[in-house]
Structure formats: C-alpha cells, structure tokens
Amino acid sequence: MPLELHIVTPEKRIFSDLVDNVYLPGADGELGVLPMHTGLVTALKPGELRYAYHGTVQTLAIGSGFAEITQTKVVVLTDSALGEADIDEAHVEEAIKRAQEKLATVDHNLDAEEVAYLQGVISRSTAALHFKRKYRP
Known about the structure:
This protein is an alpha+beta fold. Helices cover 29% and strands 40% of the residues. The protein is globular, with a radius of gyration of 16 Å.
C-alpha cells in the first residue's frame, strides 16, 4: 500500500504522487514514515527529505516547516524545497557569510524578528550546502 506524498512551498506544489516511504528531518531527529503510520503533526527543521518513488530514492533539501502524517498520506509544508541541481554553492556560501556578518556586527540595531530571520537564513543555507556537497557528482 503506497503513501500519498505532497510537498508544498509558498511558491508552488513541488511534488504530489504515490511513494513507498518518506524520511523527514523532524525537529527531534529523522522521522521515517511507512504506510499505516500513526497520525501526527510535526515540526520540520532544515535538512534532507528522502522518498522512494518508482524504485528510486529521490532527495530534496528542505527548509523549516511542518508535516502532517496520516496512515495513507504525508503533507509537507516547507519554506523551501530544492534538488541538488537547484543549489548554487557559491551563492549559498555568500548568503551564509552575509547573514553571519550582520549578526556579528556589534553596533547593529536588529530586532528579534530580524535576528530570527538571519538565523533562519543561516540554518537553511547550511542545510542546503551540506546537501549539495553530499550529492555533488
């Protein structure tokens, strides 16, 4: 019995089809989902999402978000989902550097929202960079 998998970002639906299993970067660690899994909603942290589709393992670097899991369906709502080919390593490294520099500036007047945004940029970018380097040909 396959699982329905839906991966959605604010911009578009990334994937929607039947899969054999899903592995998600949950807030408390990696979460494996097979058909007939107990229902739950969990927070996701930036990292690697894997799923078995037509006999091959597909991978995406995702940002933070949430997953709703039922016995027959997994819905992933995330702020980003990128394949290895979509990640420009130099661009990601530069984004990390800029965010770290802005956070490290002693005389900055950042409010809590700006700090959270910059920390999110660093977290998502670091996860994407790790993913890119893991699957780089």
